[in-house]
Amino acid sequence: MKDRTKLKSALLVMLAGILWGSTGVFVRPLEGKGLGSTDIVFLKLLITAIIMAAVLLIKDRKLFRIRLKDLWCFVGTGIFSIVFFSVCYYKTIAVSSMSISAILLYTAPAFVILLSALLFRERLTKRRILALALAFTGLVFVTGVLGGGDRLTFGVLLTGLGSGLGYGLYSIFGRYALERGYDPLTINFYTFLLAAISSGLISSPGRVLAMMTGSAGNLALSVAFAVIVSVMPFLVYTIGLKNLENGQAAIIASIEPVVATLLGIIFFREKMTVSILTGSVLVLAGILVSNLPARNAVQLNEDQKRTTENGGEQSKDDPVPPGRGGGRPRIGDPPGVDGRRQSPAEERDPLQAFHGGLSGEPERAFRR
User: Rounded CA gap, 220 and 239, in Å?
Assistant: First the structure.
């Protein structure tokens, strides 16, 4: 059951990455209507906040309630993440190439993995590092940055890494909000409300509103843009984040630039090259590696299955659980791995009890 839940969460995060990858399909028509980059950001955030408010009103007005002491979580997701990364990303695009901008933006999984290891005690495993390396190498191939001859200046590096850090901070602040018991709908509403207010200060709200109300077609395009590249992906990503570690989610979402490239080929007749194909395969390989079950978890599932088949008793061929005493649990022993009493954390999660300690999942490390 736990594996199925994690699989569903991984698919939700991947769906978020796919939807984010469709951004370019909407941005080009909006630019053609006279909107600048910051205007497009404000348009997306404003409509998203309005839609999320309507959803909360219909579903449950209690979801509007937040504690003032937790406001910093939503300032983090809305301003320090969404607005900060958008400003840095568009600044990088303005002074550099799309390929350089995309590569620097997708340093985000590295930031997420390092910050999650520091703040939430998530394990920095060899498998996760391999998955990150595969995904990042794939992105290098997809963007064609190696053969582009683009020059990387200090200013470009600074704003580009800023976009990656800001992009990754959504997972960090979003995790804190989830740990405090907030519904994903609540998190997304306050994220985009604060982000919309902040982005309105650096854009031209009058021009955005004039474009939206200019025709029914413009309004439909604006709403579709917000729903497909903002409301839906951020919602499903936040839901998926509840059952995945931050680093794993960030790697899975790396499918976004691959999807963006493929949609560019389909809709804008951009060329498919061997480099793009190779990079896409590497990114998918990284996602696959990040979702492979750990060996000990597979062994545990097999042991539990054999124990069930034997009527609750272990067979003589079953491996001895690595408990403190090294002995095999017997019928009549006190609850625990090796006869010792289980801690509350172990009673919540028998998989962690089997390994003799906490796995470092953030909701336990930072439980109030």
Answer: 27
Q: Where are the alpha helices (DSSP H) in the chain?
A: 2-20, 23-32, 37-59, 71-75, 84-95, 98-105, 108-119, 126-143, 154-179, 184-200, 205-212, 216-226, 232-241, 246-252, 255-268, 274-290, 295-309, 344-348, 350-354, 362-365
Is there a contact between 214 and 208 (Cβ–Cβ < 8 Å)? no
Q: Which of 275, 176, 187 is nearest to 231 (CA)?
A: 187
Q: Which residue has the tokens 């984010």?
A: 20
Which residues touch 76 (CB under 8 Å, ≥6 apart)?
Answer: 169, 172, 173, 176
Q: How far is CA 368 from CA 11, 72, 291, 362, in A?
A: 29, 16, 29, 11
Residue range 230-261, pLDDT digits in tens: 999 999 999 999 999 999 999 999 898 888 88
Question: If you compute the radius of gyration of the chain from its CA atoms, what whole number of angstroms results?
Answer: 23
Q: Judge contact between 125 and 66, C-beta under 8 A.
A: no
Mean pLDDT, rounded, for 275-295: 84
Distance CA 158, CA 88 (A): 9
Three-class DSSP category at 120: coil
**Residue 225 CB-half CA count within 13 A:** 24
Residue range 297-333, pLDDT digits in tens: 555 455 555 555 555 555 444 444 444 444 444 444 4
Token pair recorded at residue 334:
């006190």
The encoded tokens of residue 289 equal 């590696």
